[in-house]
């Protein structure tokens, strides 16, 4: 279990992020159109997973906008924003905000949160995903992770960018 904070209250997740250098767990998520978004479709590309609780919070929606901007600027890298929000909410948000370079997907019907160790295990946000960033290299190995200590804080965008840029 990882220990995070939710509004200053210590809170546990169901596990820990995958180890840097190890294989990224395979996943199947629900896209905005309810079709499967599978990890194998990103093979051969650098991938940033931006994981967060819900688009209905200011920090989460801001992070999606910032990762969308990053996706525009990075060559040969994909950004996948993952939450427990329903695909309909993700689609509505991305359409209204002009999110076209980052892809959004829902973990609402998958084991993604358990597989990546990011499901919040207790408290009022139990069942949602904690705020994390995972960078995966072209071969499917984890190159960088960040478990944001306080779920209300933004991730380290610069560190995520540098991790992607360091990949060949």
Automatic annotation (TrEMBL):
Q: Which GO terms describe its molecular function?
A: thioredoxin peroxidase activity
Domain Thioredoxin per the UniProt entry, residue ranges: 18-168
InterPro entries on file? Redoxin, Thioredoxin-like_sf, Thioredoxin_domain, TPX, Tpx_CS, Tpx_Peroxidase_subfamily
Q: By what name is this protein known?
A: Thiol peroxidase
The catalysed reaction is: a hydroperoxide + [thioredoxin]-dithiol = an alcohol + [thioredoxin]-disulfide + H2O
Q: Which gene encodes it?
A: tpx
Q: What domain of life?
A: Bacteria
Q: Which organism is it from?
A: Bifidobacterium actinocoloniiforme DSM 22766
How does the annotation summarize its subunit structure? Homodimer.
Is Disulfide bond included in the keywords of this UniProt record?
A: yes
PANTHER family registered for this protein in UniProt: THIOL PEROXIDASE
